[in-house]
Specification:
3 helices, 8 strands, alpha+beta, 19% helix, two-stranded antiparallel ribbon, elongated
């Protein structure tokens, strides 16, 4: 969540959603949801897969994948924490949050792209395709 908040999209636009139904190998699962114009939707999934993956790999490969803890003087199979985030959803979150309607002095309204400073390039222009003043 700290990384998401560093993007400057507003803390009020994020929330956690804990899963009630878990996969047989999981002991916890939560989503980070973002408030899109069409409501809160999953942006990133975070799942504790316990030691299921490594235990299964050990079982079928015959290779030991345990970690030895010298302080406790014992071995254990580490848990796997899986996180999944999609570039398309992140782009949509950034883009949909950056569009703002701006009222001009003459009363007309235009939509302006205002990217968060941390994501904005130093110089950029997003222009519609127009045929004006000799420009194709």
């Amino acid at each position: 969540m700290k990384w998401h908040l560093s993007l400057g999209l507003g803390e009020e636009n994020y929330r956690f959603h804990d899963h009630e139904k878990l996969a047989h190998y999981a002991d916890a699962a939560t989503d980070i949801e973002f408030k899109f114009p069409f409501g809160f939707k999953e942006l990133e999934g975070i799942h504790s897969r316990t030691d299921f993956d490594l235990s299964q790999h050990e079982k079928h490969s015959g290779k030991k994948l345990q970690y030895f803890d010298h302080e406790e003087n014992k071995s254990y199979t580490p848990y796997v924490l899986e996180t999944s985030i999609g570039l398309d959803r992140m782009f949509l979150a950034v883009f949909s949050n950056a569009l703002e309607d701006e009222t001009l002095e003459d009363g007309s309204v235009r939509t302006v792209l205002k990217l968060p400073a941390v994501l904005a390039p130093f110089k950029a222009a997003v222009l519609p395709l127009v045929k004006k003043d000799g420009l194709p």
